[in-house]
Design brief:
- The chain is mainly α and 60 residues long.
- 92% of the residues lie in helices and 0% in strands.
- Helix 1 packs antiparallel against helix 2.
Length: 60
């Protein structure tokens, strides 16, 4: 598990949530979609880190 990768994913998720919220407030669908995409990317990064952790535990 790389703590830096998890932090990056968490930051990206927060950025995405903020961007999505701004898109909602301003009525900008592009910002909303980009924010949602960032959140999906962050979820994928977290899933990858979880898989890495599972593999490492299985090996140890």
């Amino acid at each position: 598990m790389s703590i830096e990768d998890r932090i990056d994913a968490t930051v990206k998720n927060l950025e995405g949530k903020g961007q999505e919220m701004m898109g909602e407030l301003t009525g900008n669908p592009q910002d909303r979609k980009e924010g949602q995409a960032k959140q999906a990317e962050a979820e994928t990064q977290h899933a990858i880190e979880n898989i890495k952790d599972d593999i490492k535990q299985a090996i140890d």
